[in-house]
Specification:
By secondary structure, the chain is α/β, with parallel strands linked by helices. α9 runs antiparallel to α12. The radius of gyration is 45 Å and the shape is elongated.
Length: 646
């Protein structure tokens, strides 16, 4: 439903007998033509007719179920120019003596701009001897009015009874003359006959070489020499792509492009903007030539056009290997496999203990004592059983030699099970060392990951990175991680950042396309796998911008859609922007360092520490035993016992 208000202003001259009156023909025209031509949803009628005529007109409009309000034009000036009713469609009788003055007031208040709509009624009949004859009318007033391509001003000229001729009027620019468009005609019998149903943006593309002013933002002075040759794509790619699209748009409108160079997109300084945004705010340029991100503070200053550039600022990194994120030595088996293995070892330990005990009991009998004593000199203990189990399971060997069949069966099963588990374990370890994790999916994951953060050393990259992280604690912590207090900030060139992504656990924040362009040229195929990107700004792609209430808004919007429809936008993006490299082969050599083997090294360290502690305890225990022996050998009174004398 269109919430468009139809305000019909019929300023009727009251000082002569030939005043134009609202008759049934005009009422029928409103009922038949305006829903198609102007799509009103409410009628607010401002007229100078008498109170009785206003009452009768309201009764007739109610019969047609038209929402309306009728006011006297002498007391409705404030109502007419109320800015809160900016979507009104006004109808003005141009035969009224005050019509020219009203149009000048509308011009001064800039009320011809979209989405306001106007329907002007001209009665071209002149009554001579009680007979209406066609009259001429001076339309030179429109030469001085701000009726531009975005305006919707329809003039309905009445000839000979019920015939109304419809035209639209506009000016391509302040420097061009008025253009009249034939929109069709209306009669009671034939109804509305339209010459075209095209919208204004499609009908008014020809701006007659009007100068369209623009501005582009460049960060490298040499960019001005390579705007259209598709070279050096890593430098100002958005400027180059948008300039080509801007040329297409201006050419489609038959206009002339004039642009200047800005150093930045714009910063807000106490409500006043500099850079390209400031030029749009001060109406020094018509359209921004370089797309910009849609930020909340900019929406009130300029208008965005649905012509996006696939350029974004984000973190690019390679997903780290599992060994840097987790204890890789526990990953080859699932938890239930580890539990089953533990149960198996406990069971084997119990069976081994029973079999060795039984073997020792049988081995110490008189029949086999000599042979048994050659193999096992001491009585087996629980510690011996534990080391047999540990040596077999860890593939390290053991000193025990089984003699009886039960113990041999137990140890054989232990060796076979440990061999199978060891083969499966080592095979999975090798695979996992080459595998990457996919656990880093959000900014929070990235912040608390072992990856080092860095950013591309560009002014606008620093600005967006810091300004976005003012309120969000995660982004604020990332800013501190890149710019640590008391140390050098981690801002670097594009080449250095891409190199560190390749050789380190490193996440690089910058423009997506140049990063991928360098990766595509310098990385091996296997190194292109596992690349991940995380959006930091959390906003849509940069889009074209234009003045608020621009006279060319609808034409440029329509042209932007055509660029996408014809494929011109995607053709230029394909040549200037590098997409994420595809992973064609994950086969390659990997380097295993201390990071990957950290858990094993930690276990070895604890083992060494435990062995030292045990060694010290054994020394202390041995020393204590020797002291006890000496105390028993030498009595405290210095005399030897009888046993020692004998």
């Amino acid at each position: 439903m269109f919430f468009v208000v139809l305000c019909i202003v019929l300023a009727v001259s009251l000082d002569n007998a030939s005043s134009c009156r609202i008759d049934k023909i005009i009422l029928q025209f409103i009922v038949d033509a305006t829903p198609i031509l102007l799509s009103p949803s409410r009628i607010s009628l401002h007229t100078c007719i008498s109170y009785d005529d206003m009452t009768g007109l309201s009764r007739e409009m109610s019969r047609y179920h038209l929402m309306h309000g009728i006011y006297n034009v002498e007391n409705s000036e404030k109502r007419i120019y109320d800015n809160l009713e900016h979507r009104n469609l006004y109808m003005l009788d141009m035969n009224c003596d005050s019509s020219i003055e009203i149009l000048r007031q509308v011009h001064s208040k800039n009320m011809f701009i979209a989405p306001m709509k106007w329907l002007l009624l001209q009665d071209r009949r002149m009554m001579i001897d009680n007979v209406y004859k066609n009259s001429t009318y001076d339309n030179s007033i429109f030469e001085d009015l701000a009726i531009y391509p975005d305006s919707d001003v329809v003039v309905a000229q009445r000839f000979d009874g019920d015939f109304l001729y419809l035209t639209s009027v506009y000016r391509p620019s302040p420097q061009r003359a008025v253009i009249w468009e034939n929109r069709g005609n209306w009669t009671v019998e034939t109804g509305l006959q339209m010459t075209t149903f095209d919208v204004a943006s499609a009908r008014r593309r020809n701006l007659q070489q009007t100068v369209i002013k623009s501005s582009i933002v460049i960060t490298n002075p040499d960019t001005i020499n390579h705007l259209t040759d598709f070279e050096y794509n890593t430098i100002d790619p958005i400027t180059k792509a948008n300039y080509i699209w801007l040329v297409h748009l201006v050419s489609r409108m038959n206009a002339t492009l004039s642009f200047n160079i800005a150093n930045n997109w714009g910063h807000n300084k106490n409500g006043s903007w500099d850079g390209m945004i400031g030029m749009l705010q001060r109406r020094e340029i018509d359209i921004g030539g370089t797309g910009m991100f849609m930020l909340t503070e900019r929406i009130s200053v300029l208008e965005y056009i649905q012509l996006y550039t696939h350029s974004s600022l984000c973190f690019v990194f390679r997903q780290p290997s599992l060994s840097t994120m987790k204890n890789i030595f526990t990953l080859p088996f699932q938890q239930n496999v580890w539990v089953a293995t533990a149960i198996f070892l406990v069971l084997v330990f119990c069976l081994l203990y029973i079999s060795i005990k039984w073997e020792h009991y049988r081995g110490t009998s008189k029949k086999s004592a000599a042979y048994w004593n050659q193999l096992n000199n001491s009585k087996p203990t629980v510690t011996d059983n534990f080391f047999i189990l540990l040596g077999a399971f860890a593939q390290q060997g053991y000193s025990y030699e089984p003699y009886r069949i039960p113990s041999r069966i137990v140890i054989l099963m232990l060796l076979l099970a440990s061999l199978s588990l060891y083969a499966a374990y080592t095979a999975n370890i090798v695979t996992l060392f080459q595998s990457t994790t996919d656990k880093i999916k959000t900014l929070s994951d990235l912040l608390y990951s072992p990856l080092t953060l860095g950013g591309q050393d560009l002014p606008y990259n620093k600005y967006y990175f810091k300004s976005t992280g003012i309120q969000d604690p995660i982004r604020k912590a990332m800013v501190k991680k890149i710019e640590p207090e008391g140390r050098k900030a981690n801002w670097m060139s594009l080449e250095e950042g891409v190199r560190r992504i390749r050789s380190e656990t490193f996440a690089f924040h910058g423009i997506q396309s140049p990063i991928y362009h360098v990766i595509q040229r310098t990385y091996q195929e296997a190194e292109k796998c596992g690349l991940t990107e995380i959006d930091y700004l959390n906003t849509i792609y940069p889009a074209f911008t234009i003045q608020k209430h621009s006279r060319y808004l609808e034409i440029i919007k329509n042209g932007a859609l055509k660029l996408r429809e014809y494929g011109l936008k995607y053709r230029d993006e394909y040549r200037l922007y590098t997409r994420k490299p595809t992973c064609t082969s994950q086969i390659g050599f990997i380097t295993i360092g201390f990071t990957q083997c950290s858990f094993a090294i930690i276990i070895m360290g604890y083992g060494v520490l435990l062995s030292v502690i045990v060694f010290v305890l054994e020394l202390l225990w041995n020393k204590r035993q020797n002291m006890n022996i000496l105390e028993e050998a030498v009595p405290t009174d210095g005399r030897r016992s009888d046993h020692q004398i004998h």
